[in-house]
Design brief:
It contains 11 helices and 12 strands. It folds into 3 domains: 6-163, PAS domain (Beta-Lactamase, 2-Layer Sandwich), CATH 3.30.450.20; 224-309, Helix Hairpins; 317-467, Histidine kinase-like ATPase, C-terminal domain (Heat Shock Protein 90). The model has no long low-confidence stretch (mean pLDDT 85). The chain has helices at residues 6-62, 66-79, 111-118, 158-209, 224-272, 281-309, 322-339, 359-375, 408-411, 422-425, 435-445, and strands spanning 81-87, 92-95, 123-126, 137-143, 149-157, 317-321, 343-347, 354-358, 382-390, 394-401, 450-455, 459-467. By secondary structure, the protein is of the alpha+beta class. The two termini are 62 Å apart. A hairpin with a 4-residue loop joins β1 and β2. Bound molecules: adenosine-5'-diphosphate. Adenosine-5'-diphosphate (ADP) is lined by residues 368, 372-373, 376, 401, 403-406, 414, 419-421, 424, 431-437, 460. It is a multi-pass membrane protein. Residues 252-470 form the Histidine kinase domain. It is an enzyme of class 2 (transferase). This is histidine kinase.
Length: 470
């Protein structure tokens, strides 16, 4: 559990990256800083050497060596550097007060220093601990042109230099550590913050899986996490609706199955036991027939739906005249429309509109849409069926009614399986909420689209497209 947590993984990843960067940066900075500090120190020593050289020249010219002693004292105090004067033979002839006086008379045993300075070059060298100074030294030499002297050597003890460097390192390490801790803290907080919504969703998903379809997550941001939360809620809403529809469907179907079966059983029993005399039997047999037809319609819808659901829709596409199919469907609906005193107005884009599609399926689509238009229209209403060319090779079919209309909220779901608008549920007993989902499945199987435009109380228009035959 601990190992799998994203927070920990993220945190460890951040830490590894930061540690790597800190070590790399620390290493690089210390090398750069050491080099810089050493060259600065050398530069300062050279500048001081230049001044003392000038003072020595002056002393030679004026015979006043006070100034020279003063310059040496300043260098020693201010830079922490001792001064040695070396003659042409490389022998130390003068040492500043801070230097060990036993060095006087010794040869400065660094050939490259002495030779280079005799050629008039500025030189520098870091000695080891086994030098005549007894401790590692940074020696910078400045050439002299006057008299017996070959050069002036400024010496700074390396351990002293290291002390100042170490102070800097300590400050650097402290800053890096502080940055490291700060980043660790920030990364811990942000990774926690990032995973919180995920954990929320996880909890919600578990609840939904357990049957609580009303569970939603809180949307706290507009970033990818917020979008995920939004999609999650949308999914939960769809699941809730499917679940509601499923329950409603079972309730409806059992009711719809029970009522025709009860009346069929009732009439047949009455006929058999003679309660209904033979001369009246025809009328009741017709009712029995109607009821059994209602049952088969219901069964048909369910079978169609489950086939569509298993995506077993196999299209048998041919070229046929769409106008003809519309006319046939008008004829089928005629008795129903007559009963309600309704009228249908048809307007075709052309005299003959050849389309390429599965004829039976399109006929079923038209039937479902026109049947709904009749079902949800008032007595004496008008239905308009229209075809218009759309784009280069498409035809747009619209079925318009002036009936009850569908609210915007319901429009989102009417194409879902088993969905029936509540207000129509009690009035319309023949439908099982499958008609429009079949329409959508069939139209989508053709690679086309279906849409609805509707306003509550004003009527609805259902639109779908088809490909024209080539
Ligand atoms: P049914 O087979 O029950 O009619 P449908 O899937 O065809 O189911 O329709 C789903 C629901 O959409 C219907 O119950 C009805 O409430 C609404 N509906 C469909 N067509 C129309 C329409 N033309 N006018 C108003 N409501 C409609």
């Amino acid at each position: 559990m601990f190992k799998k947590s994203i927070v920990i993984k993220q945190f460890l990843l951040y830490m590894a990256t930061i540690s790597f960067c800190v070590i790399l940066m620390g290493g690089m900075l210390s090398v750069i800083y050491t080099n810089h500090y050493m060259s600065e120190t050398k530069q300062e020593l050279i500048e001081q050497g230049e001044k003392i050289a000038a003072a020595i020249n002056k002393a030679y010219n004026t015979g006043n060596i006070n100034n020279l002693a003063y310059e040496m004292q300043v260098l020693e105090d201010y830079m922490g550097a001792g001064v040695l004067l070396v003659n042409k033979e490389g022998v130390i002839v003068l040492a500043s007060p801070g230097m060990d006086s036993s060095l006087l008379g010794h040869v400065l045993a660094y050939d490259e220093l002495v030779e280079n300075i005799q050629e008039g070059n500025v030189v520098s060298l870091e000695t080891g601990s086994s030098s005549i100074f007894g401790t590692p030294m940074l020696i910078v030499g400045y050439p002299l042109s006057e008299g017996q002297l070959s050069g002036i050597f400024m010496c700074r003890s390396m351990p002293e230099i290291k002390v100042s460097l170490n102070e800097m390192y300590r400050a650097g390490v402290f800053c890096l550590l502080l940055a490291f801790l700060l980043t660790a803290l920030v990364s811990l907080v942000t990774s926690r913050k990032m995973t919180e919504p995920l954990m929320d969703m996880n909890r919600a998903a578990k609840e939904i899986a357990g049957g609580n379809f009303e569970k939603r997550v809180e949307i706290t941001s507009k970033d990818e996490m917020g979008q995920l939360a939004e999609s999650f809620n949308h999914m939960a809403e769809s699941l809730e609706n499917i679940e509601k529809s499923r329950r409603a469907f079972i309730a409806n179907v059992s009711h719809d199955l029970r009522s025709p079966l009860t009346s069929i059983q009732g009439f047949l029993t009455a006929m058999l036991d003679g309660t209904i005399p033979p001369e009246k039997q025809e009328r009741y047999l017709r009712i029995v027939l109607e009821e059994s037809q209602r049952l088969s319609r219901l069964a048909e819808g369910i079978v169609d739906m489950s086939r569509a659901q298993d995506s077993k829709i196999v299209l048998e596409e041919t070229d046929f005249d769409l106008n003809e199919i519309i006319r046939e469907n008008c004829a089928v609906l005629e008795p129903q429309m007559e009963e309600k005193g309704m009228r249908i107005e048809v307007s075709f884009a052309a005299k003959e509109t050849m389309v390429h599609a599965d004829q039976d399926k399109i006929s079923r689509v038209l039937h479902n849409l026109m049947n709904n238009a009749v079902k949800f229209s008032k007595e004496g209403g008008v239905i308009e069926v229209e075809t218009t060319f759309s784009g280069k090779n498409k035809i747009l079919v619209s079925v318009k009614d002036h009936g009850s209309g569908i609210s915007e909220e319901d429009q989102k779901y009417i194409f879902d399986r088993f969905y029936k608008v509540d207000s129509t549920r009690n009035k319309d007993k023949t439908g099982a909420g499958l008609g429009l989902s079949i329409v959508r499945e069939f139209i989508q199987a053709h690679g086309e689209t279906v849409a609805v435009k509707s306003k509550l109380g004003e009527g609805s228009t259902f639109l779908f497209t088809l490909k024209l035959a080539k």
